[in-house]
């Protein structure tokens, strides 16, 4: 055998070994996957469905987003293995870990792991401009308020927030697109949104009619922050055509989640893809500009999946020991 032949043979053998290893690494990967999102018309649906398509396309798998009731249900679905991935907020996540989820009281959800930060969810209020409602204190007693899908983050926290602020209301549930239509038709008075901005349903309403986006006063903001797991937030004026200046609000962080029993190599590749391609993530929804490793610190509740931990540590990000499995 000549030197040239040996070199070619050695190169081919190495290539085959690498290819074989790559194939072996995928041996325990799922053939397909589902991402639990929320109702159509909300940011979760747009973000989650787009992210699912990105994973599927880049990793050569079959996968997609699924309409769900939102963060609470996504936690339960991931915990039970009904979906591989989901989107949630830190408030419902803390309740789920403690066994205090409204969907499964007394059942600690210990098969839910964090992947990466998404964005902050502002709690914002929208009414028709001709309603005369320009502040929270303007909301009349008995007003019908849409809080999103039942057991969603919005439905879990916003009613209690408004009760804390002295608002008396008739509670309504539904998907964001449906509630937007009801508001426009005069069937409800207000929508209390908890969703990443810009909220598609609000953007659509702005095109079709005049709306008021109602901000919290400083006192209202401070009172809500004392009572609930939220932080101060300002909705930038550039978010909606209706806004002439930044609007004061409160917010809660969102994270993607995965079943803790998913294969480590699979989750490593999903995390790598998501964290190393923020331009593609922003193409899905502009709120993904905050979907960066620097925001890992906002999860203090869920353990990170071992596959995610491996990517973060390889890239110089520290995961607290109490958030590792």
UniProtKB/TrEMBL annotation:
<protein>
    <recommendedName>
        <fullName>TRAP transporter solute receptor, TAXI family</fullName>
    </recommendedName>
</protein>
<dbReference type="InterPro" id="IPR011852">
    <property type="entry name" value="TRAP_TAXI"/>
</dbReference>
<keyword id="KW-0732">Signal</keyword>
<feature type="signal peptide">
    <location>
        <begin position="1"/>
        <end position="24"/>
    </location>
</feature>
<dbReference type="Pfam" id="PF16868">
    <property type="entry name" value="NMT1_3"/>
</dbReference>
């Amino acid at each position: 055998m000549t030197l040239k032949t040996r070199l070619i043979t050695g190169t081919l053998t190495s290539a085959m070994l690498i290819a074989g290893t790559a194939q072996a690494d995928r041996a325990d990967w799922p053939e397909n996957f589902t991402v639990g999102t929320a109702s159509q018309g909300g940011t979760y649906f747009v973000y989650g469905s787009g992210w699912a398509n990105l994973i599927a396309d880049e990793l050569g798998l079959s996968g997609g987003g699924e309409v769900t009731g939102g963060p609470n249900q996504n936690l339960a679905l991931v915990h039970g293995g009904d979906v591989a991935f989901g989107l949630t907020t830190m408030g419902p996540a803390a309740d789920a870990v403690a066994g205090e989820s409204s969907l499964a009281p007394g059942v600690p959800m210990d098969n839910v792991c964090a992947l990466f930060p998404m964005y902050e969810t502002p709690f914002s209020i929208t009414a028709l401009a001709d309603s005369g409602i320009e502040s929270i204190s303007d909301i009349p007693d008995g007003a019908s308020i849409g809080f999103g899908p039942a057991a969603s983050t919005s439905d879990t926290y916003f009613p209690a927030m408004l009760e804390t602020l002295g608002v008396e209301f008739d509670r309504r549930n539904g998907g964001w697109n449906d509630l937007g239509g009801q508001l426009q038709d005069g069937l409800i008075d207000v929508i209390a949104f908890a969703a990443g901005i810009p909220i598609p349903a609000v953007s659509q309403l702005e095109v079709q009619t005049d709306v008021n986006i109602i901000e919290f006063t400083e006192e209202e903001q401070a009172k809500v922050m004392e009572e609930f797991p939220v932080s101060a937030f300002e909705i930038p004026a550039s978010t909606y055509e209706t806004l002439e200046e930044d609007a004061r609000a409160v917010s809660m962080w969102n994270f993607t989640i995965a079943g803790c029993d998913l294969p480590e190599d699979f989750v490593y590749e999903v995390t790598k893809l998501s964290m190393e391609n923020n331009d593609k993530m922003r193409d899905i929804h502009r709120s993904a500009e905050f979907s960066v490793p620097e925001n890992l610190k906002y999860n203090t509740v869920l353990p990170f999946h071992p596959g995610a931990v491996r990517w973060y540590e390889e890239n110089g990000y520290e995961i607290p020991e109490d958030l590792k499995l």
